[in-house]
Every structure is written in structure tokens, then in C-alpha cells.
Amino acid sequence: MFINEITDKYYDVAIVGAGPAGISLALRLSEKSKAKVLLIESGGLESKPEIKKLSEVEAIGDLSNNYYAAHAQRKFGGMSSIWGGYCATLEKRSFLNKEWPIKYEDISPYYKDAADILELPKESFISPIQNFSKEDNVIYKPYYLSPPVRFGEKYELYFRNSKNVHVLLDATCTKVLSSGNVIEILIAQDSDGSLNVTHQIMAKYYVLACGGIGNPRLLQLSKIAPESPVGNYFMDHPHIYTAGKLKLSKKMLCPVAGSWDGKVVRTLKQRVYPFFGIENRSPVHALQLSDDYCLRNNLLCFSVSFRMDSVESCVFLGDVRDVYVSDATIRSEMVPKAENNTSLGGNLDHLKQPKARVDFNFDYQELAKKCWDAFARELLASGIGRATTNPELYNITGGGHFIGTTRMGTTANNSVVDASCKVHSIDNLYVAGSSVFSASAASNPTFSIVAFALRLADHLSMKLKGEKLS
Asked: To pair with 343 at 20 to 30 A between CA atoms, which of 109, 407, 454, 469?
């Protein structure tokens, strides 16, 4: 149910943030247990300009203050309210390279239920990649499109009718109070600051799910885990639009990409995708270098998307063939660097709290050229197609994906949370969302954000099982 004030003295789980991570976590907890859950959201059911100002940061580097504010929505449903719907599973490269403290198999089973929440076809998790042959280093890995699901709209009625989940809107958490290695109280204020209302929340377990900037900021405001790299290793996904031209063999692509189109059209209902402005039931086609190839050649994950709506006949590898002609769009992961970080700035917001200061640079030009050259070389060697040479200078933009600032790892020296998403030094504090990602991969994060939230919910459900619920 939706509440205006805290009516219960004690909750089993208190969740800060009602975006895809927080809502998926609360949804799963309500289905898997009888836990009493509080879901706290800084915004309301609709976006409010005054509350949205709380997302302003002090920006240093490649991206502007407006960029960060635009990609931190404060309303029930969070970033899903403006999300384009791109979904793909994480690549295995960083798991195989031991960049995560878990195995890929620890998260992959949760993609099935995440696909149900995001209304994706089963192909999105059963066969997320297709190989052209065992010898080729180029694979087909499309991005599937959620309708896109607007979490606030889809789940508002569910939570209104829920007896075990309370939803508190227009309340911004400003401090987490600890005693030793236990969180005792969560402090929240009315978000516009006009009512001068303070909420004190007590729970067995607390989960921060307020984004790649909000999560580390709340830890820093509360002086939690100062021994850990809180706020460091900030990552986004470098995007390079019209990075080059591709000519791709229709004969080779059709058995892979074409057959998948047919499956998706039969599986999905007819939908209109507002992000594109057109009806679109097919995945966004994309090619990648295989995980094994990237590992052998010390390359980052690197995705090249293309279209299949323009065909021409031309001489290709000595024969006249039908080829798809398309601009190429690059999406890539980044190297996690400590100097890309978010910290507390010198200016205060209207709740009298320091704004976040984000210091971030892509530093991706040379890596982009290296990856593109390798992709072009392997694409030609496979006979799948040909890519133009790369330009001297790329125009790099971000994806609005804030990743890695409370990264998962094995110790408090090199990470903020452990394999269960628990803050290393605190027994009852967890973090959800892409801020826990140890590596960003090339895939858009929402599919994996939901999968990790479901995994965390199962972990908390098991801990609560057998305990006396409040």
C-alpha cells in the first residue's frame, strides 16, 4: 500500500529507490516471503521539477551537469520512465577474466524471470548469441526490445493492493546511521523540503537502490565503508553513432539474424516502440567479437549494431553478392579506473546536503580504434562482411548508464560489496543496481539490473526464512 508516513515501527527490509532495481526487489520479496517491506522513493507518481533538482551534480570532465541530471529520474519507476527498452545479457568475457567475484552461471538463471518482468521473448536468455561457425571470431548478439516496460505504471496497482509492501513517496534518504557493523536507522526527509518532515526507519535489512550516483553519495553522506573505494570506478557505455559503414553478406546473415526475426515476430505481441517512433517487433541486430577472441587479444567487449533494410548487389570477395548496407553504431565497455569517480561536492541542495561531484572522462579514442580494427579484420576474414576504416577522431557520447561506483569484489580494499551485494563492513546493508557491476560489458544494463535484484531478493528471502518476521 502507499503511505504518507511511517506507520510500522520495524520492517524486515527497507529499500531506498523505486526504479527497476528497487521495484523488482520488492516484487520478488513479496512473492517469495511474507516479509514486511518498505519501498522509499524520492519522487512521486509524476516527475516534479523541484524534486528533480536533487539530481543535479557538479560535473567535471567529458559530460555535463545536465547529462547526469537527465539520467537520474526521481519518480516511482525511476529511469524506466524514459528508458528505450534495449536489453541484452552480460557478456561472459569479464567473468572468465575473473573481474567478478562470481561466475556467469551465478547470475544467468535469473535472466528468465527478468525477461518476464521486462516482457522479453525467451530467445533473449535461452540463446543470447548465435555463432556463424566454430571457426569465426565474430558472433551475432542482438539487443532485444522491451515494450519498454514503465515500472511505475505497470506495478502501481500491484503495490497499492499489497499488504506486505508499503510505498513511501516524496521522501529522500539523507543519512544511514550505523552502530559498529550494523545499520540501525535510516533518515528520510520530504523531498521538496517544504513540509520539514523527517522519517526515521528501522529494519532488519537495508538495500540502497538509488542509482550509480545516489548509492555512493548516500554511503559518503553517512560515512559508511570509508575503507572501501566508494564512488570510484565510475563507468558509462561509450556510444559512437555512424562510426563507419558495413557491407554484410545477406546469404550469411539470413540464417542467423533472419530466422531470429521470425521467431520474435511469432513470440511477441504487436507493439509500438515510442523510443523509435515506429512499430518494431524485431531485435536490434548487432555483431560482436567472441568472448574467447577478446580474452586472447586483451580487448574490451565491443558491440556493433546495424540495420537490414537496405540491400544492394556488389562485388564482395570476388563474387557478385547481395549485401546489407548499413551505418554502424558502436557500444562498448570501459576500463574501470579509480580516477573516474563520484564524491561529495562543495555546493548544497535544497535539503542542505552536499551535491555529488562527478569527475569522469571516457579516455576511449585509442581503444575504440584498436577494437574497430580488430573487428574489421575478423569480419573480413570470416566472409561475413566488410567494414570501412575508422575515422581519425570519434565523436563519443554516453549511454546514460552509471555503473561500478559500489563495485562487487572479494575485499573491502578493492570493492564495496561482496558476492551477495552486501557492503563488506556492514552486516545488514546491501546495494542493488548497476553500481555493483565489477565490469560494465557492452550490453545495456537494465536486463542485468533486474536479474541481480531478483538474485538479491532470493538471498534476503533465505536469510529471513526461519527468522522471526516483524
From this structure: 454
